[in-house]
Each structure stands twice: as C-alpha cells, then as structure tokens.
Hints:
The structure holds two protein chains of two kinds.
Chain A: H1 2-13, H2 26-46, E1 49-50, E2 59-62, H3 65-68, E3 72-74, E4 80-82, H4 85-116, H5 120-135, H6 138-149, H7 154-160, H8 172-197, H9 200-208, H10 213-241, H11 245-249, H12 258-266, H13 272-300
Antiparallel strand pairs in A: 1-2, 3-4
Helix pairs in contact in A: 2-13, 4-8, 4-10, 5-8, 6-8, 8-10, 9-10, 10-13, 12-13
Chain B: H1 7-10, H2 23-44, H3 61-68, H4 70-101, H5 106-121, H6 124-138, H7 144-169, H8 173-180, H9 185-214, H10 217-222, H11 230-239, H12 244-271
Helix pairs in contact in B: 2-12, 3-12, 4-7, 4-9, 4-11, 5-7, 7-9, 8-9, 9-12
Membrane topology (chain A): Multi-pass membrane protein
Main location (chain A): membrane
Subcellular location (chain A): Cell membrane
Amino acid sequence: MTAVTTPTKKPVTRARPGQSSPKLAYLPIIFLAFAIGIPLLIIVVYSFLEKPSQGTGVKWVFTTENYRALFIQEKLDGTTAFDTRYIKVLWTSFYYSLITTVVTLVFSVPVAMWIATREARKRTLLVALVTLPFWISILIRTYGMRQIIADEGPIGKFLGLFDISWSILYSPPATILGLIYVFLPFMILPIYASAERFDFRLAEAAYDLGAKRMTVVRRIILPSIRPGVISGVALVFIPALGSFLQSDMLGGGKTNMVANVIANNFGQARNWPFGSALAVLLIILTLLFVLIIQGIAQRRGDKVELV
Amino acid sequence: MSSTKTPSTKRGKLVNLRNFPGFTSTSWFVMFFLYIPLVYVVIYSFNSSRIGSIWKSFSVKWYGKVIENTDIQRALKNSLQVGFAATILSTVLAVMAALGLLRMQRAGKAVAMALIGAPLIIAEIVLAVGTLGLFIAVGVPLGKVGLIVAHTAFCIPFALLPIRARLSQLDMAPFEAASDLGANERQILRRITLPLLSPAIIAGALLAFAISIDDFITSFFVAGPGSTTLPVYIFGMIRSTVTPEVNAISTLLLLFSGGVLLGSYLIQRKRR
C-alpha cells in the first residue's frame, strides 16, 4: 500500500530546498490545542458532570442526567414525562437555518449570474458592494434590520398611510429575515466565484446545437455553478444553525434558537452541565451536516473546501 | 430543411443566454435589501430627535455625545488593544502554521487543520462557553489577557486564508536557487519567503483585525466586567435604551470597517 502511494506522496513531505522546517508549525498547533482543543474538550466533559447545588460551574460527579434532561422532564411529584421543549429548540434552529439557506440560495443564483455577466469594471464594483457587508459587524447589521422592521420603522410608517398595521418585530419571521439579511453575502460570493469562471460561450454553443433554453440552464449552467452552490449552502447553514444575535435581537426571546438556550444556561440559568450537553448536541449536528455536504460534493466530483 | 438556416434565426429570435428575465431586477432588489438598513442607520444618526423613529431636524449632537461618553472611550480602547494584540499574534502564528504545514506529515497536518478550521465550523457560542470554562478552570482572570488569547485563536483561520492561497501560487524557483547558492533556512525566510508573502500577510492581518474588532459572542462571555469591548457595550446600549447615540456609534464603526476594506483593496492593488 505504502509502496504504491510513495511516488505521489513523497514529494509533498520531502524537504524541498528552501522550504521551512515543519517545526515552525508546532507553536501554532500547541497554542490552538490550548485555546480551541481544550475548550471543546471541557464542553464534552462538563456535559457529563453535575450542577453544583448553588453558584455557577460544575460538581465533579459523573452523570448522564444532562442528556436525559434534553428529552425527559422530572415533574415535582416524582413522575417523569417526555419533554419536547428542547427538541423544539433544536427543530426551530434547524428549520430557521433551512429556510434561510433556501431563500438566500433562490436570490443568490440570479444575483451571482447577473454580476458574472457584467463587464469587468462594473463587476469589480458589484463584488465590492456584496463583500462590504461581510466586513461590517453582524451586531450592527442586525440592529439596522431591527430599525427597518420595527413597528414605527419605515415599513410600518409607509403601511400606516394605508391603515395597514405592521408588527413583525419580536416574532419568528423577524428572526428569519434577520438571518437571511446577515448571511446573504455568504451565499452570493461563492456562487459568484463559480459563475465567474463559467465560459458563457459553452451555453451559447449548446443552444446553437439545438438545446432548449431550460435545457441549457439545467444541463450546462447549473452543473457549472454547483461547487459554488454547495459551498454557499455550507457557509450559510452552518453559522445560521449556531446563530445567537438574530433570535436575541429580532425574535425578542420568544423564538429561542439553540445558541440562545446555551447562552442562557451559562448565564442567568446557571446550569453549565446542561448548557454543555446542548452544545455537544449542536457540535454533533454541525459535524453531521459537514459530512453530508462533503459526501454530496464528493459524489458529484466537485472540489469543495470548507476549511 | 431548416438546417440550411442559422440556428438562432431558426427559432425566430435571437436569444441572449447572458441575460435571463428577472435577473437584473432581482439583483437590484438584493442590493437595495443589503444596504437599506445600513443607510437608514446612517441617516438617522443625524436626527436631532430623541425618539429614534421620528425625524426632527439635522444634527450632529449624537456624535458629540458619543465622543464625550467615557464608557465608549474605554470600550473602544479595550477593543483596539485586544484587536491589535490579537492581530499581531494571530498573523505571526498563521505565517508559522502556513509555512510549517507545507512539509508536515499527513497525520499531523490533519490534526492541525482540524484545530485551525474548528472556529470556522463550530458555532461561536460553543467555543465561547468552552473558553469561559477553560479560563475559570485554569484561573485566567476574565479580562484583556483572556480576550486576547480567545481572539487570537479564532482569528488564526482568517489570517491564514490569504497566506495559504498565496503560498500555493508561489513559484518555488527562487527558493531552490537561494538554497543552491548556499542560503540557510533563516536567510531564505527573511529575504525571500516573507517579502513574497507580504501582500498576503497584510491582507490576512486586516481580516484578523476586522474579525477581532467585530466580535461579539466570545467577548460577551470572557470579557469580564472591567474589559468590555465596543460591540459588547453597543449590545448593552441597544438592550437598555435605544437612543440615536447607537446610530451614531454604528455609523462610525461602518466608516471604520469600510476604511479597513478600502485599505486592503488598495494595498492589494498597489502590489499587483
């Protein structure tokens, strides 16, 4: 096995003249093991510990109670009942992220294709316009959206002229709108990167050879932008699943997503072990989604790099 | 037979495959959607009225309030200190990682990439509470040192992105030539590698700085009461009393972010 792979692998690791020693990477790896690896490990360990009778932190007693508490509620009279609250929280996060992904995708494909077919000068400007929000604080962008959709904001005032009442702030649609708003550039940019490389003469050739317009879209254009679509779906769905600010600022606490419940358990609720169990569940869901995306990309033969 | 005619006239009309119906209007709508909340915040930062949603008259008084606000000054100072420290540390570590990983064995490389990529994939809230747990466990006081450590960690993947991209495009000939001519590893690093990588290093550093300055969730959990950063302070302002002061400070931050982006664009353009 190694004998077969040697000729292709060896040059990668062999000391090429002039290249730095791999020892250079040791310090960053040790640092990241401390600052990223250990925090993740701590979350896993805490999820199997008990909550202290008072104060914050953990009590070093092993228990699987935190995972049980995700699904089963202990009533005051000692009976137990199936508890759907946290399943609902997870479902809400999943469902909101899914809607966000679908809506951003539907809008991003036309936008990315449109930008890709403009002339070079205009294209640079348009790409900069889509990139700029990426550099602006998500907190401020979410705040801006809140001002727009507030009851007495511009939409509310406009509709007020026709005596139509407007009140969506602090509701699920407001949270979803905020997610769409914040993550839209994450979908447009990778699709644009694929569309920009597409040679539109291929589409014209297919058309000239007798393909119908929809066939050209389905068989020539869409397969060419698929790597961008897959990257975009991952770049929107993954952060949306763990998003905190949108449901906090726009959902008004009524529409809790999993990140808000985790934050609450490490904050006011003071139940670190239970918050950790939820965090572990969120990690598992995220990794599961990454595996699915990579599986799809691999089967299609697309090169999609998430990291 | 129709084959004697050209294909496009065969169907009676010329079809432009580069323009689909509705794409232009959709794109304008999306651009409008992306910018209208930001424009609204900027416009209302000049509103003299105390009630955010009612326009009274043009005024810059909220900017005066922002500048006079000592809490904002302190938060800005904290943000800048943490941001600069995290930018320098994460960029240095990213350069080291990028160069070292080139020659690393498969297994070590996989572990390193998993650690580097983790902040991009795992929800920030999870890393934030984990980092809080770590700091409490090892007794790191919640404050600037902890903030710098946490920010450095999640800035590394962003600083690394442009550096790795540039490294993969580099022509190896100058390295081999230098080595053949007797330069040692340190000389090659200082005289060839770093100068060739410098545009990417600057781009990576700017990205890291922007990410650090904008961070909310991690800072919210590990800042502690004494070292509140600007986003955490703004979040508190939005939660308690929304005065037009929030619009003014947001506008200043927008200008700042735009300036950083413009700076990185100009640097990359100049080097090309």
